[in-house]
Amino acid sequence: MTEKTMGRRRRYRQRHKRNMTAALVTVAFILAAVMLIAIVACLDYVNRIMPEEMLRGPEPMEVGRDRAPVNTAPQEPYEDGTEWNLRLVNRWNPVPEGYTIRLKELAGGEKVDERVYAPLTEMLEAAREGNLDELPRVISGYRTQEVQQGLYDDEVNKYKSQGYSEEEARAEAGRWVALPGTSEHQLGLAVDLEGATYDVFLWLQENSYKYGFIFRYPGSKTDITGTVEEVWHYRYVGVQAATEMYEQGLCLEEYVELKAGAEA
Ligand SMILES: [Zn+2]
After folding, report:
1. Domain spans, the chain
2. Which pLDDT band holds residue 182 (cuts at 50, 70, 90)?
3. 100 alpha carbon to ligand 1 midpoint, in Å?
4. Would residue 194 show up in a list of annotated catalytic residues for this protein?
5. 236 and 119 in contact (C-beta within 8 Å)?
6. Residue 171's pLDDT band (boundaries 50, 70, 90)?
7. Are the C-beta atoms of residues 245 and 214 closer than 8 Å to each other?
8. What are the residues whose beta carbons fall under 8 Å from the beta carbon of 196, sequence distance 6 or more?
9. What class does CATH assign to 60-143+183-263?
10. Which of these is catalytic: 172, 230, 244, 254?
């Protein structure tokens, strides 16, 4: 083999190598382009076939009282002009017909009006300091008319089985369980709490107003609230109202009356 021939072969190999590299780069480029197009097409397809709700995530649940037609929430003052956070519900003031709520589920499964979810969560977190560093539990939040009816019926039956007449049993049961339609739990604004220690209730009595919640049924106000003392029951009214009620020692009935007097 001559020097000349060997040089030709080397140049040929170098040229061949350059051609191969160029071809590989082109193929890789084409593959990348094809994959990009496929991904874009796929995303577009998903967008078109998936219901919008699935892409947005679940909507807050809407619940109509007593199977009333579901309505989107009264986020503004209810139609009678009452501010939602100051709505008074007790044995003399039932939950308005057709009242609707947007609920949000708490850890543990109970639900509350979505507007009180954040302040409640914040309060429970802070209450750790009065509860051996444990998070207090919400044992009862929103209740439907049916659930409240069931609780009331059970209580009436308990007294009847002890020999009370129907009338006596109803009167006695009414002292402990709100008549269906007159429980704040049906508003989704009240919760019953359970702590690791009784001290948590003392902590709540001194601090809940900072989060907009009130100790709703103190024993000293039973004549006005119509409900015997319930240390576990807390009701949202908003920080301003709760602070005023805390500082002036007023229950919700007294506060609402005071406000109505001031406006008149
Ligand atoms: Zn309660």
Report:
1. 3-55, 60-143+183-263
2. very high
3. 19
4. no
5. yes
6. very high
7. yes
8. 131, 132, 134, 136
9. alpha beta
10. 230
